[in-house]
TrEMBL record:
Domain of life where this protein originates: Bacteria
Keyword Cell inner membrane: no
UniProt name for this protein: Efflux RND transporter periplasmic adaptor subunit
Membrane topology classification: Single-pass membrane protein
SUPFAM superfamilies reported for this sequence: Single hybrid motif
One cellular component term from this protein's GO annotations in UniProt: membrane
Keywords in alphabetical order: Membrane, Transmembrane, Transmembrane helix
Subcellular location: Membrane
Protein source organism: Microbacterium lushaniae
Family that this chain belongs to: Belongs to the membrane fusion protein (MFP) (TC 8.A.1) family.
Coiled-coil region(s): none
């Protein structure tokens, strides 16, 4: 073998190695799984309010208590309600449904759940139409996670994509994307993703499975084929040279 042929063979090997290295970089840059920048367990929450302003004369529950539909939460005594009852503006059926003639109404839970917040404790004044408390509904837990992605990778998030949820106790729950919202900052897609898991949604909103618990979400992006990264790189190059 002549020196010229040896040089050609060596050059060919180097070119192949460079191409392999370049393709490896492209493939590595194209993410398949992404970690959330933040993720939190969230529950469907329901405000507890009153139509008539008045003094909270009795508080039946505390934060963290579990309640069922119809359970009493507060008694609120309202002079305005008392006047409406006296003038006949409040129908008799209302008097039989937790409203007394002295203007005291019993506010009851409308969902099964856990009391997350007490806004007006016993002795406080509740505004008409204001919130007394918040109840997190049972069997409504989901995860809200944020991801920072390139515009191209954002396009690879679809409803139904698989997600792994890592809890503080290191347990892993399977989940899936059910909703996506996005804002764009400096060419990056800041995506807020709603993730639901059958193993999470059937839990009561207590302990580790309560609203506000931080988790880590790992999102599986859509697979566009083994050569998708190469195609993206070629298109980027063509755009840069104006083709």
């Amino acid at each position: 073998m002549t020196w010229a042929n040896r040089l050609k063979m060596t050059a060919g090997i180097l070119i192949v190695l460079l191409l392999v290295a370049a393709f490896t970089v492209v493939f590595n840059q194209r993410q398949q799984r992404v970690l959330s920048t933040s993720a939190t367990i969230v529950a469907e929450s329901y405000p507890v309010g009153t139509d008539y302003g008045g003094i909270v004369t009795r508080q039946y529950v505390e934060v963290g208590d579990e309640v069922a539909v119809g359970d009493p939460l507060f008694d609120v005594r309202s002079l305005h309600l008392q006047r409406d009852i006296a003038s006949g503006q409040v129908a008799d059926p209302a008097l039989a449904a937790g409203v007394s003639a002295d203007g005291t109404s019993t506010i009851a839970a409308t969902v099964d759940g856990t009391v997350r917040e007490i806004a007006v404790p016993q002795g406080g004044f509740a505004q008409a139409g204001g919130m007394l408390a918040t109840v997190d509904e049972n069997a409504s837990l989901f995860v809200e996670a944020e991801f920072q992605l390139s515009a191209r990778d954002y396009a690879r998030i679809d409803e139904g994509n698989d997600v792994e949820l890592l809890l503080p106790n290191q347990a892993v729950l399977p989940g899936a994307v059910v909703g996506i919202e996005v804002t764009t900052v400096d060419g990056q897609a800041l995506s807020t993703v709603r993730i639901e898991s059958a193993e999470l949604s059937n839990k009561r909103a207590t302990g580790m499975f309560q609203a506000g618990t931080p988790v880590q979400a790992t999102l599986q992006l859509r697979q566009d084929g083994p050569l998708a990264g190469v195609g993206d790189a070629v298109r980027d190059l063509l755009r840069k040279v104006g083709l």
